[in-house]
Amino acid sequence: MSDELKPDELLDKVDHSPASGSWMDTTVQIRPGIFSYAAKPESLETLSAPNPRQWNPLDDDWKLPENWQEIIHNGIKERLEKFRTFKIFMDVCVRCGACADKCHFFLGTGDPLNMPVLRAELLRSVYRNDFTTAGKILSKIPGGEKLGGGRPMTVEVLKQWWYYFFQCTECRRCSVFCPYGIDTAEITIMGRELLNLLGLNIDWIATPVSNCYQTGNHLGIQPHAFKDMLDFFTEDIEEITGVNVEPQFNVKGADILFITPSGDVFADPGTYTCQGYMILFKYLKDKYDLNVTWSTYASEGGNFGFFTSHETMKRLNAKMYAEAKRLGVKWILGGECGHMWRVINQYMDTMNGPADFLEEPVNPITGTKFENAKSTKMVHITEFTADLIKHGKLELDKSRNSNRVMTFHDSCNPARGMGLLDEPRYCIQNVCDNFFEMPENTIREQTFCCGSGAGLNAGENIELRMAGALPRANAVKYVHDKFGVNTLGTICAIDRAALSTLCEYWVPEVEVYGVHELVGNALILPGEKKRETDLRMEPLPGMEDDDE
Amino acid sequence: MNINKSLEKNRKKIIDQWFEATIKSYPPETARVLGRIKNRFDNPVGSATQESLENVFDQLLKDLDPGKLEDALDPVIRIRAVQKFTASDAVGFVFELKEIVKNILENAPGEDFDRKVDQVALAAFNRFMKCRESIFLIKATESKKRIHRAFERAGLVTELKDEDLL
Fold first, then answer.
1. Most buried residue, A128, A369, A421, B20, by CB count within 10 Å?
2. What ranges do the domains of chain B cover?
3. Burial classification of residue A233, based on how many CB atoms lie within 10 Å of its CB (0-12 exposed, 13-18 middle, 19 or more buried)
4. Cβ contact (<8 Å) for B44 and A31?
């Protein structure tokens, strides 16, 4: 527990500088560089989401529906009845302050309203005022609102909600330290869900959601373009290895359906991770006759619906099961993604499941049963690859990665959302010689977020992203200075993009790699030629002079 | 006693007060957290600020080298460049040093010392501008890359290298 902040100090004596008075009275100042642009009306229309219109967060008038307070009130009421966690989290916080200094956004921005307890209080104060007996009684007494920690819902409060619920990446680091186990991410999830009732989403979430709903992936890439991109990778890999790794698409009766975030297909450096998957599947096909198919319909593993509402998350997630059923595969293999795995591990089974038409996942090559995927029928690729390595089923040449001095960033959702901690490390240590951990209070369950998750990897909020990235970058810089680490491994598509940018600002000497990019470099394909470059077309260690 | 000796003798006291003054530029409830450093990874802003102030102070005892001075200032300025500070607030903590030293030293430090502090402030401003430029460059490059890739996918442009995007 934090001993810097005591409950009374934290809430009763909060006094913003230079403004005076309680945090509850503070008018929000929406600052460029911190906020993300408003959702475009056409993206909301795709999903028949409420109140689509052009609006600007910097304007006074947010063009809200006339009865917006009633909508919010009823929205809270409905969710209190529907989600037991939400009700408990609203009631149970004792404001001990243990979470206060655990948030990367608070540590980076220095804005007190980014302390998880205060971010949650933005919503909790309205709950107290409107839904608790004490709050209702106290609100009638002069000064009673403050005494009860309640306040009425006003436009200023709504603006605070919007500003600060989109300054939380739902990473759940704070919840690790909460003695009551309050999952502050769920409060943000509810806050955003309520904001969506009024059409108050950000565009970096709403447009990917709309794209995904219409074409199957966040970027709105149509099936032929998706295939073109993988064909393009096939050509590159053939140039490097001499082997044609052509993938197969939409194959009925394949053993396994593979789904990964579309960022792996279209955004560097994720594209190299994608090439790593392709090399692995070719290897498994040639050696063990394993039949893996890609889908141009379920062409997105990520789910920005998760950052919008439960309903939207469900709608986007449904295609994974629908496609697995249509193709008649045995089970689903999932790529290196972050929030995709929280959706799968914690929601999918009860949301769109049970997927009783699929088999309980067993690795056909090693016979390993993936017990933790027994119900969801979806296995994480690092678990799958770690299992293959453990059973000696992959022929690997570590020396091809010997110029990589590695550390590993635990992505928040696989680490805290499903406990996937050792498998990626096991893969890395089997394909690389040099591996150094970052300090223990910055990794595994205590990992610091990249600062760009939960739909916040936009361009316009770059200052927020860089400030939020500071605690992570600080630990990366430490291992860079101490051990000469030059490569940050990760298993999340947003991380691959976000960490690259944060390194550019904070630790420019460090590059970001997906785990399967390293696997792809090390894996010796049957019949391959002598490789001279890695997947980035950079000379392999010891081949630097062969260019000339 | 010459000024450098007095400064060295009071090193800890001066740096502690300078650190406190710098951290006070944050809202009070934030300052309370950032002001206590138990672990540099749990409190990156506090520890980077402390580290920078110590290194800058040590530079003040030597002939000032603008390059080394900027390097010493980098950790604290790089952070303040992405926080809610105006340019003057981001570098203003440097000037606090004049008053602190005057109050602590028995003999007034003199104009030479003030001029040195001014040089530190200018170096801080230089580094602040570099950080801001870096932020804008990163922002511009990121968005150019995104837009360019869309054109590339549509087959409208040929492949460009990163250098061409800058």
1. A128
2. 3-133
3. buried
4. no
